[in-house]
């Protein structure tokens, strides 16, 4: 079924809190965008198909469908269409949703390409993949599932043996620190996604690195030895959309539970006051912890189950779009 092109207008939204209120009832399906709006770091541009102040439709209740919100992370767009919240869509609803998604994304990229020669559209739910292919003549790739922990399921603290100037000593005789500039090359060399070095540098405050210490010392008592560990044994990063990625454990330190440990440590750090986003109200800081895992990555899927994460019942995809678009 096809429908005639629908008129779409996009409005800039500087205040994210009302948008979070609108998206919250649709968790976990709205999680990629919901978390994006809360992740600390560089400011992001956010637009919606309704004006600021019209989130409830003017009646104090939830806004009626269909509507769409999108966020521009610089190298990637994230969006949520209200029709995604439905478990089943009628033929008419699917056609209307596809038209809204395609028209809104095209309109935004025509007006705000910003001199970029390409951009990704990320975490696209499987119901919109054919729409993206039709409107942008590009085939989405990398079918992944979302593994997530909702805020009430996150353990805020982890057992530690002691703290040092260089980081926190964890069970197993490793020290957890933030990422450092000298870590960038190693993080890039172990990542399956070819991130630019400058991007990884901006995420170092939101990176957890496990480092080994001298086995001849007791790291819980010798702060000098623990303060300057050098060998990286595991690491992972919270990306700009709030997802945890680049997770890696050194081949010589596997089968010791370090993958689960570095992931749990990063999650605890994300929910600490130190990483509280500044652009949303404190009461709204409740985004879940989540990872994108390729459907065929058995080892990573097993790790997510080990730390107690839930798996989504839908897949998400990515698409690369060449810019500028032809009007």
Automatic annotation (TrEMBL):
It comes from Rhodotorula toruloides. GO terms for molecular function: acyltransferase activity, transferring groups other than amino-acyl groups. This is BY PROTMAP: gi|472585138|gb|EMS22704.1| GCN5-related N-acetyltransferase (GNAT) [Rhodosporidium toruloides NP11] gi|647400097|emb|CDR45204.1| RHTO0S10e06744g1_1 [Rhodosporidium toruloides]. The keyword Transferase applies. Pfam families: FR47. It comes from the Eukaryota. Keywords: Transferase. PROSITE patterns: GNAT. The gene is FGENESH: predicted gene_6.124. Residues 174-326 form the N-acetyltransferase domain. InterPro entries: Acyl-CoA_N-acyltransferase (IPR053225), Acyl_CoA_acyltransferase (IPR016181), GCN5-like_dom (IPR013653), GNAT_dom (IPR000182).
């Amino acid at each position: 079924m096809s429908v005639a092109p629908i008129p779409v207008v996009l409005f800039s939204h500087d205040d994210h809190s009302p948008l979070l209120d609108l998206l919250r009832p649709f968790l976990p399906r709205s999680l990629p965008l919901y978390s994006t709006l809360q992740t600390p770091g560089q400011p992001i541009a956010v637009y919606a198909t309704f004006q600021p102040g019209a989130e409830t439709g003017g009646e104090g209740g939830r806004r009626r469908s269909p509507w769409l919100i999108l966020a521009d992370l610089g190298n990637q767009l994230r969006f949520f269409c209200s029709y995604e919240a439905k478990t089943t869509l009628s033929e008419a609803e699917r056609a209307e949703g596809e038209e809204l998604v395609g028209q809104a994304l095209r309109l935004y990229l025509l007006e705000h390409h910003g001199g970029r020669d390409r951009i990704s559209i990320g975490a696209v739910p499987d119901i919109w993949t054919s729409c993206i292919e039709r409107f942008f003549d590009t085939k989405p790739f990398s079918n992944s599932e979302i593994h997530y922990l909702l805020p009430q399921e996150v353990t805020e603290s982890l057992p530690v043996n002691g703290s040092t100037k260089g980081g926190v000593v964890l069970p197993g005789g490793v020290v957890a620190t933030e990422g450092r500039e000298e870590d960038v090359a190693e993080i890039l060399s172990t990542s399956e996604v070819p991130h630019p070095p400058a991007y990884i540098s901006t995420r170092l405050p939101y990176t957890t690195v496990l480092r080994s210490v001298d086995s001849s010392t007791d790291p819980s008592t010798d702060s000098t030895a623990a303060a300057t560990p050098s060998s990286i044994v595991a690491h992972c990063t919270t990306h700009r959309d709030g997802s945890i990625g680049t997770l890696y454990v050194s081949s010589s330190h596997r089968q010791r539970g370090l993958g689960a440990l570095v992931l749990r440590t990063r999650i605890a750090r994300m929910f600490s006051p130190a990483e509280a986003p500044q652009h949303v109200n404190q009461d709204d800081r409740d985004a879940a912890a989540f990872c994108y895992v390729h459907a065929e990555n058995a080892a990573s899927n097993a790790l997510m189950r080990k730390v107690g994460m839930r798996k989504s019942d839908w897949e998400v995809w990515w698409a690369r779009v060449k810019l500028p678009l032809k009007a």
